[in-house]
TrEMBL record:
Protein name: Alcohol dehydrogenase
EC id: 1.1.1.1
Family to which the UniProt record says this protein belongs: Belongs to the zinc-containing alcohol dehydrogenase family.
Catalytic activity line of the entry: a primary alcohol + NAD(+) = an aldehyde + NADH + H(+); a secondary alcohol + NAD(+) = a ketone + NADH + H(+)
InterPro entries listed in its UniProt record: ADH-like_C (IPR013149), ADH-like_N (IPR013154), ER (IPR020843), GroES-like_sf (IPR011032), NAD(P)-bd_dom_sf (IPR036291)
MF (Gene Ontology): alcohol dehydrogenase (NAD+) activity; metal ion binding
Enzyme class: oxidoreductase
Protein keywords: Metal-binding, NAD, Oxidoreductase, Zinc
Cofactor(s) this protein requires: Zn(2+)
Keyword Oxidoreductase attributed: yes
Tagged with keyword Transcription regulation: no
Alphabetized Pfam families for the sequence: ADH_N, ADH_zinc_N
Length: 342
């Protein structure tokens, strides 16, 4: 009989995961078996389980791509600096081919042969997981294992997204959506010397943004966020990073941007938004999407954390609570990030 461990499994698309015992996998070539300590719960896990994106994961699967744990066994291959006992993490970019046009040009997150943690490969909502040691995160020494977990997806995603806005120190950046991603984006933007404006539809989210260093906040449910940002900044924000889970925020970004500004989309609500062509042309806007980050972005994002610039607001929960956490994400009532402790 094979060994078993407890995991939260998506057996069908829908609202709930089933917490059950599954077979312990053996690490293959370039892989490590990891015993988990913590895992963040990303809104992407909810999209995955509900199957609401055009490309769906194969069922059954174990979600989770902000997992932190200890290597307990290594498969064949050269694992570089990773050994039994190393603290590592799984990420969305679980592995890539390393040889395609995108991999060769430093854009590995767009590799057509990539595997995604907790989506195409079982993830961190369980006591054990596999990682590819060529792509997994190296957790910095001394890291708080609960606090560091959200850096593995939320952190690297917004760090890369902020770079993609091309906002310079001293310029304005809007963070639209102050959830798991957004409250960390506020902190990276402050650390990168940007002047941060936060936009959300809930007062407690705006208070969290202020706590983490936003100089101005806008409640998009109460005022026109475009007008408020244009007035405060004297013409619009140089950069806009959209991490919100509602389509409305994507169109609003165009009204918040300054002439020549750059808007980056991180948020992934399924659906479309109306884009005013006249405004985009006459303001000379750049609009781009940004998907997580490369291994280098991840190392840099973790380095900001290790140097004490980033402190995610994290609330601890148990694996058994995962369906309740999903419900809170749906309602928009999570403060920062929730993370499982094993
Ligand atoms: P979350 O649920 O923690 O936060 C979402 C936030 O959006 C909440 O604070 C909510 O109040 C806010 N919001 C909702 N409607 C809004 C509106 N109209 N205007 C402004 N704010 C609004 O979610 P999260 O974990 O931060 O993830 C956010 C999104 O980013 C998800 O769609 C997720 O799949 C996606 N994501 C993308 C990447 C990527 O690589 N691009 C990586 C991780 C997550
Ligand atoms: Zn994520
Ligand atoms: Zn590739």
């Amino acid at each position: 009989m094979s060994e078993k461990f407890t995991a939260a499994v998506a057996e069908e698309f829908g609202p709930t995961l089933n917490v059950t015992d599954i077979d312990l996998p053996q690490p293959g070539r370039n892989q490590a078996l990891v015993k988990l300590h913590t895992s963040g719960v990303c809104h992407t896990d909810l999209h995955a389980v509900e199957g609401d994106w055009p490309v769906k994961p194969g069922l059954p699967f174990v979600p989770g791509h902000e997992g932190v744990g200890e290597v307990v066994a290594l498969g064949e291959g050269d694992h570089a600096d990773i050994e039994v006992g190393s603290m590592v993490g799984n990420v969305w970019l679980w592995s890539a081919c390393g040889t395609c046009e995108y991999c060769r040009t430093g854009r590995e997150t767009y590799c057509p042969n990539a595997e995604y943690g907790g989506y195409t490969v079982d993830g961190s909502f369980g006591q054990y997981m596999l990682v590819d040691t060529r792509y997994c995160a190296r957790i910095p020494d001394g890291a708080d294992l609960l606090e560091v977990a959200p850096i593995l997806c939320a952190g690297v995603t917004v760090y890369k997204g902020l770079k993609e806005t091309e906002t310079r120190p001293g310029q304005f950046v809007v963070i639209s959506g102050v959830g798991g991603l957004g409250h960390i984006a506020v902190q990276y933007a402050v650390a990168m010397g940007m002047r941060v404006i936060a936009v959300d539809i809930a007062e407690d989210k705006l208070a969290l943004a202020k706590k983490h260093g936003a100089e101005y906040t806008v409640n998009a449910r109460e005022v026109d966020p475009g007008q408020a940002v244009v007035e405060y900044t004297g013409g619009g924000s140089h950069g806009v990073l959209v991490t919100a889970v509602h389509e409305a925020a994507f169109g609003q970004a165009i009204h918040m941007a300054r002439k020549g500004g750059t808007i980056v989309f991180n948020g992934l609500p399924p659906g479309d938004f109306p884009a005013p062509i006249f405004d985009i042309v006459f303001k000379g806007l750049t609009i781009r999407g940004s998907l997580v980050g490369t291994r280098q972005d991840l190392a840099e994002a973790l380095d900001f954390y290790a140097r004490g610039h980033i402190h995610p607001t994290v609330t601890e929960c148990a694996l058994e609570d995962v369906n309740e956490v999903f419900e809170k994400l749906r309602q928009g009532t999570v403060d920062g990030r929730m993370a499982i402790r094993y």
